[in-house]
């Protein structure tokens, strides 16, 4: 008979289950918190009933996407720091790329990164406007006072 599941017999099982269901960290991080191996946490995940998972989620309330992303950001940052400390170059590069992507996504969600296209059109230089302006002044040439008033007004708008 196989030994009992370390998660099922854990004295803090309710907290363990909640951390697993709510994504309270990686299996390794959760295992470290409760004194279990990451594989034991992964195996225990299948022992949490769907009904219990639903109850845990309802008690915790809805979480905003940005809150979940910030949690993931923290895990990636921890992974990067750990990889650097252990001299694992490949994992450091991989974690750094993920961290950059996560920062970009968070910046988009919070509005810090505005990717909208902005187009500035200077109407005063458009050929159609230059032609229309010439036609207006030509028509106003018979009325010098009106031509001067229009010219002054247009000059004030362009400034």
- CA radius of gyration is 32 Å
Strand content: under 5%
- Helix content bin: 55-70%
* Main beta-sheet annotation: none
Structural class: mainly alpha
Number of domains: 3
Measured distance between first and last alpha carbons: 88 Å
Based on Cα principal axes, name the global outline. Answer: rod-shaped
The number of strands is 0
Helix run count: 8
Roughly what is the average pLDDT, rounded to an integer? 83
- H/E series: HHHHHHHH
Q: Low-confidence spans: pLDDT under 50, at least 5 residues?
A: none
Attribute tags:
single chain, 159 residues, mainly alpha, 3 domains, 8 helices, 69% helix, rod-shaped
Descriptive notes:
The chain has 159 residues and is an all-alpha fold. It folds into 3 domains: 1-62; 63-117; 123-158, no CATH class. Helices cover 69% and strands 0% of the residues. The protein contains 8 helices and no strands. It has helices at residues 13-21, 27-34, 38-45, 50-60, 65-86, 89-110, 127-140, 144-158. Helix 2 (27-34) packs across helix 3 (38-45) and helix 5 runs antiparallel to helix 6. The chain starts with 12 loop residues before the first helix and ends with a helix. The model has no long low-confidence stretch (mean pLDDT 83).
